[in-house]
Each structure stands twice: as C-alpha cells, then as structure tokens.
Amino acid sequence: MNNDDELIICRCNEVTKKDIVDAIKDGADSITGIKRRTKAGMGLCQGKTCSRLVARIIAEETGKKLQDIAQPTARPPVRPVKLETIADENVAES
Amino acid sequence: MSEFRIIEHPILSEWVEKKEITFFFDGEPLKAYEGEPIAAALMAYGIRTIRKTLKKGRPRGVYCAIGRCTDCIMTVNGTPNVRTCITPVQEGMKVETQTGRGSWE
Amino acid sequence: MVDEKADIAVIGAGPAGLSAAIEAAKTGAKVVVYDENLKPGGQLFKQTHKFFGSNEHLAGVRGFNIGKLLLEDASSTNVKIKLDTIVTGMYKPTTLELVSKGKKWKCEAQAIIVATGAIENSLAFPGWTMPGVMGAGAAQTMININRVLPGKRILMVGSGNVGLIVSYQLKQAGAKVVAIIEAANKIGGYGVHSAKVMRAGIPIYLSTTIKEANGDPEVQEATIAKVDQKFKYIEGTEQSLDVDTICIAVGLSPMTELLNMMDIVVTWDNSLGGHIPLHDEDMMTSRPGIYVAGDVSGIEEASSAIEEGRLAGVAAAHKIGFINADKAEISKYQIRKRLDALRSGPFGEIRKAAKRDLIQLYKKMDYQNEAIQVQAAVVSIAGKTIENEVHLRGYPTIEEIKLSGNISSEERFKKGPVAIIECVQEIPCNPCEKICPFGAIEIGTPITNLPLLDAEKCHGCGLCIPGCPGQAVFVVDFSKEVEYATVKIPWEFLPVPQKGDIVAAVDRKGKAIGEAVVSNVKYLPEYDKTRVVELKVPRNIALDVRSMERGVKCE
User: Fold this and answer.
1) φ, ψ (nearest 5 deg) of residue C305
2) What ipTM goes with this model?
3) Fewer Cβ atoms within 10 A, N terminus or C terminus of chain B?
4) Do C193 and C292 fall into the same domain?
C-alpha cells in the first residue's frame, strides 16, 4: 500500500498516486478536475505523459469507464512557448 | 565514449566520421559529434542522469527521446529547460544539470 | 514573420503528413507542411526493419528507405516543409497559428490535414521515473537515429509489434535483451517477429509484469512477477533481473491536442488507441475542412498512415476544387482498396471493423458536439486460419508448418535443396510470391493467404530468404551427404560469420541443440543487408535448426 501512495504519476510535477486518489475522494472525477487540484498535467509536458495514467486511476477509484473520462481541455498554445513570442509586439503585419 | 557508440551495425549505413567537437557538462569537457542531440552525446559516455526534480530531488533521464515528455531538460548556455534529446550539441556549449525548472543566468 | 496563405496546410511531416502533402500537391494545390521537429519523417526513419504488405505498399523495403522516397517525392512535387515550427493553435475556419525561432505568424489555409501522430503510453511502477526507464520508441530513436546504446542489459515490457521489433533491433545494436515480458497470456505482435526474437535468444515470458525497478541513481535491477487473469501479482513468483535499462512498449495514444481545441468530435475505441477523432470515409472530421490521417486518427502502422494520408490529401484537394470529382473518386477507390488489404487477417480485421464503425458513427453524428462513445466491434477471425499456437509459444512447431503444406516429403528432400516457409499467421504480406524466379510460391488474393510452396518448382535458390520481411523462410538440403544436411538462414547481426566457423546450432526456441559449421555465407546488394548463412548440421536436427550463436555450449 505504501509503495502505491508514493508512486509518481505526473512526472513533471511529481504528483503521487496518493495525491490523485485524495483529490478523487475530495470530489474530482475528471482529468481536468484532478489537474486543478493536484497540478498533475500542468507541467512542461502539459499532461502528455500522465493523462492516461490519471484516467486509469479515476476509473479504478470511481468505477467510471475509461471511455467516459473526457480528455483534458486543450487551449492555445498547445506547446510551451516564451511569452515574448506570443506577446503583441510580435504580431505580424496582416 | 565509444563503449555506447554504435560504430558497426548490420543494417544502418556505414559509420561516417563526423566533426568532433568539445562541449562542457557541468564544467567537464566532453567530446561529441557536432549536431547530435545533447542527450545522445551524454549517453555515449553512459551519462544518463540528466537532472534532479524540484520537490524530491530525484534523478531523471531520457524518457521519450522525441522532445515530448520534457524529462531530459537541462540548462544550456544559461537557458534552462532545454530539451536535450532534440537539441543539437555545438562546439563550446555549456550544458548543466538543473534542479526542477532551473533558473536563468 | 509575415502571415502566409496556403491551399492546404498539413500538420506533421511523418509518413501520413508527407503522403497527404504529396497527393495534394500533385493536383496543383499549394501545400505547406509544418513539423515541430528539426527533422522530417516522424517515426519512419528509425524503422530499420523491412515492411510487410504488397508491392504497392513497398513491401520488403526498410522503413527509413521508404522515408527517403517520401522526401524525394515531396521535393519533386514542390511541397514546402517548414521544420522547427510549432502549430500553437488552430482557429475557425481553417487558420493556424505558428511559432518558430521566437517568431509567430498565421497561416490561412482552405483545408487542414492534421497528422500529428501519437505518443507512447506510460506504465507506472515503483522506480519508473529513474534514468534507464524509457519508452521502447525512445530506445529505438537512440539506437537507430543517434547510434547510441541507451544501456547494455535491457528488459522489454510489452510483446506487441513495437516490443518485439525494438528488442530485435536492440540486439542488432549490440545490447543484450534479457527478456520480453507480457502481462497478457498471449503474445501481442506477429508470430514472425516473436519467432525472430526467440531464436535470437530473447525469451518471452507471458502473464508476467514488472513489479518494481531498483537502483541508485539509475536502473540496476528489475523485479518481475507473474500475474493472474485480473493482472494482479501472484505472491511468491517474483524474480529479480539484472538489467540497466527498462523499455516500456505498452501501446501508443493519438496526440489530439489541436483537435480538442477545435471541439472536434472524438470517440473512444480501444483497438485504435483510445480517444479517436471521428472521421468520414474521406478522413474529414466533424469540422468541415479539417482532415486527419495516420496514428492521430487511430494507431495502426506506417503503411496505413501513408494510405490514409493520401486519402486525406486527395479528399482535401477535391473539396477545395483542385481535382474533379471523377478523378478524386478513382484515386480514393484505389487508396481504399490498398487500405483494406493492409487491414486484413486476424490482426488487421479488428482495426478494419473499428474504422468502419467510426465512419458509420460519423454519419449518425449529432453536430451539437456531444461526445459519442462507441466500443469497437471485435470481429471473428475471417478466412481460413490453420490451427496454431504461435501466439502462445512464440514460434511455430514442425506440425503446424506441416499443416500449412510447406514441409516437403522425404522424396523431395532427397532430390535437392528446397525452401521451408514458416509462415502460419495470416498477415497482409506477399513479397515472397513475387521474388521467386521459378514461380514456386503462391499467395494470390487476398494477400493474407498463407504462402504455399510448390516443392517441384522450387530449386532451393534461396532468394526467398532475404526476400521475406518476416525472416520466416529457410532452405534445407538433405541430398548431398549421408550424415549431414545444410540449413540456410537469414542473418542480420554482426559479426557476420565466415565460412568454416564452428558455431552452436540454435533451434526455434533459442536453445543450442548441436554444433554447426558455417559452410557458406552469401550476400548480394539486392538482399538489402540480409545475409544468407548456410549451416552444416547433423541431419537429424536440420528441421529444428533455425539460427546460430557463438560461444554457447549446447545441452
């Protein structure tokens, strides 16, 4: 049981299985919900590595089927970019 | 560095001597072939521990090798969070292990 | 950076994206391909094995050579490829926001083809974050693209095609693959791949998973354990393996971030990798003008990615008026025929059914953006299949090969050398039929038919040995000597043996069963790196010997 608790799920932000299970007990039942409570999926890889693992834990804990667990919301930019790149002074001429 | 380099291979094209350069890994001069990914140059020396995590200081290395997972990030020439598995190594490059998100010089 | 306009914008320069771009460009459309990587080709250039399929699918050609052909075609059709360019956003109706080297700009296109591929799945276990644990694809990138070994002693987790193929390639690169473990009770990938890997001395353990990895700071040991039907550990079955690298090959998932941003309807299909964008028979998504192709639209293989790319390219070009309806229909018909051929046989049928269901669902789709859930239909295995347990054992037995009609009679053996084709699973593949100069091998249609050898026509010339992408063909000769026979095997390792070498004769399971003398080694450029090694062995083991090894004592 201890091993499980310490198991890292979100590699970027070092969120453990226990953190996620606690968030579920707290009411989270979606990947986005877990993301907001634990920051799993908010790291540099933006959930690419951990989303499926998080979904699997939600399924285990809540009985929800994997296919009923929605993908995390995606908003631009879908890759980390420097703020100065997307800030207004770099907007190209039309 | 040859221990991990694949010089002879039954399928890949013949080994072509590329330009050898020197870069610095935490201050230590190492040899690499110009343009290969930094992480590959390190792996050629058997160096696989690339950074330490922020919260628990745990060692990390290459995981996806195609620039998606960001586990291979290092501080390169002062810029933190550079994905070393896809960034080409250059002559004189200063590559440093970082903890967590690193910091700007 | 100045904003740009294109007729068709393709996201991803892998096999699907390049193929889409080439087909579209052929119609005269202005096509630009964006790829966030520094080099094009996606995952194609690290595929060093010969592909299956038929002539039109470039069967028998190594993945990286197919990649080279695609790049040449792209260049000759004036496709613009912009590398190191990230598509950070996709906006209605068909506009892209791009970032490259600190600059941002927009591309207004008339149609967009999303070919962003997939990412390897993870498997979390204690110790999985240590250096030394990586995706199987990651190891493949390191050895085949960067020519660096990620470690010396490898544990491969997963026996699907990726796990089997990468294990073989790791051995080719000089690493020792200690074992392949598979949690299910059967091998996931093709029998020809598992046979190749087992006779190369790599064991496959079924119903086995990894319990934990230990080491400081890097992997030094892996503890594996048997699992029951529910994938729970069975106490007392733990085993410790001395490894420095653990490769995870537990499947791929489509990278659909850009599609999710546009509220494109996504469905669920287990056999295609999970969340899949719904698309019609032209590869168009629920957003008009946005197409998908390749792994992002369902995990398959590079060959199907190429065909789906072509389909999307033709469909998009037609939609925006660069090709008339008739021409488009003809092209699409031919592409769909080739796709169907690739999706046949027991492995392919499941994906064919899943894609068919996907397209059906698209037709019924409610455009109010409700996520529709569907289970892929698992079809019963079509066509005749001979009874075999290769998926449990890893290799065929002589009895199973006999059932396929491909072990010659004693009479025939006495007359001279003859081929033995050890291909007992139906996969879409037929280069052996074309390569035999005497027309002794028949497959016909569908190309999933097992090859049948006409032993009377066979001269035992051995061209079929390097011609078979699965390395499943051998030539035996019982006619020359009383006590010995020779066995010709395909060989893709270093060192290449020399005539006169004394080696261990290895059976299908990877076990040394006797001594062999290398009586001949043949190589011609058209063999494309597959050498043909002839082993002289005691007659009574000639039907078992399928490989060789040095420095091994036989039992």
Assistant:
1) -60, -40
2) 0.97
3) C
4) no
